[in-house]
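Hi everyone,

Forwarding the result from last night's run.
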Amino acid sequence: MIAGKIGAAASPLPSFRVGDERLIKLTENAGRKVSGLLTKQGRPQGVLRVSVVGGGCSGLQYKMDLQDKPQNRDILVESAGVRVVVDPKSALYVTGSELDYADALQEGGFKVKNPNAATSCSCGESFSA
């Protein structure tokens, strides 16, 4: 009876794939910033989720979020000392991208250099593919 309770309490592990920096790569600046943010939030072993959602002036925009762990079907990439996860649909749009961070008053923040973007808007936060 005890074994049944232990088995019922155990949750299945998420199934994710491991990719490499050909999917997405972080610069050293981006890696330091994300690592600092994860530590500040109390989850130094967490992940940066990068996804693509509809919106923005060019039709698609990037969304980034800090999370505890990969979810089912995610692709996990380690880059610049950070674990980055991308869902399969977003992977179609971000493959080959580089995420950079600049600590500047103007033009600062995270920037994505995406070779798949056919056009980008002037703000650099949305694109079309």
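DSSP finds three helices and ten strands in the chain.

Cheers,
N.
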